[in-house]
């Protein structure tokens, strides 16, 4: 496999090396292509991502990505949004599954749902008019964009509990009526049991009763917010992995950002990045390796080897190292 590796900014530079140590411990035939992207590169060179960088990403089988810093500067073009659009990765898959040894806000750990977030349109259209007295962002919902994400979610639901929840706000935004209608039709056509919920009450229902959900499909910004919120269910943002998938390209990254408040201290939790690596291995068909990675994470956390966000006193590298060491011993 030819793998583009982007550390990015902040804790991306810490969690990706820890995850790469885990990848190396598996002994797979992987050619790693380092690609520098992000705010640091922008400060150094004046551009956060170039056309050549995009070509490099496209030439690889898939991308493993840490996190980048995005300043709220109107002249700065978000690296992540550029990549998602350029590689047309329309599905952002965010599984929320508790690890056996970590508790979130509930005593119960018997839930396992996936947020399927539309990743190319909605309020992330990039169509904006910024003025002094009025600024607008155009929310774009298309039939094509809604159908491909709904079809993806239905296919996923069929491989799981066959339960789909369509999350929207069509009572206020008529653009969501299109998303809702197309999603419902996709569920009917594919024989998936479905219901829909308005995003505000859904947020309450999800955080109080996560065990009621299986696959959730929603528009771009709602999916962004609901996935970070769901971090509270599993023990924190340092535990949530994701995959960005399109027809041609795939890209794996933790849900969290560059965490400037803790960056540079070797204390970021690398588990979200390592679980993203696990998703990458599954996508590539390396199922046995993916299972060992998951087992090794459990073993490390059960031994109390974890970073301060989980109440531990270990460093990012120590957690990565423990997981890699367990895998090396197991593979001998
Ligand atoms: P964030 O996810 O970076 O951090 C939110 C909080 O969670 C912080 O307190 C942070 O310390 C903590 N946290 C996050 N990941 C952690 C980890 N692995 N271990 C321990 N604690 C962790 O979100 P933010 O602070 O809102 O954003 C910071 C920057 O990151 C912004 O520039 C934002 O645009 C960017 N961002 C990038 C991505 C990405 O590249 N995928 C995603 C989200 C945010
Ligand atoms: C995420 C991030 C990104 C998003 C930002 C950094 C552009 O928050 O991947 O969840 O909003 O999609
Ligand atoms: Mn986000």
From TrEMBL:
Single GO biological process annotation from the record: isocitrate metabolic process
Superkingdom, natural source: Archaea
Gene3D superfamilies (alphabetical): Isopropylmalate Dehydrogenase (3.40.718.10)
Stored SMART domains: Iso_dh
Cofactors demanded by this protein: Mg(2+)
All copies of domain Isopropylmalate dehydrogenase-like, residue ranges: 2-323
GO MF annotations in UniProt: 3-isopropylmalate dehydrogenase activity; isocitrate dehydrogenase (NAD+) activity; magnesium ion binding; NAD binding
NCBIfam families in UniProt: LEU3_arch (TIGR02088)
Family classification: Belongs to the isocitrate and isopropylmalate dehydrogenases family.
Name of the featured protein: Isocitrate/isopropylmalate family dehydrogenase
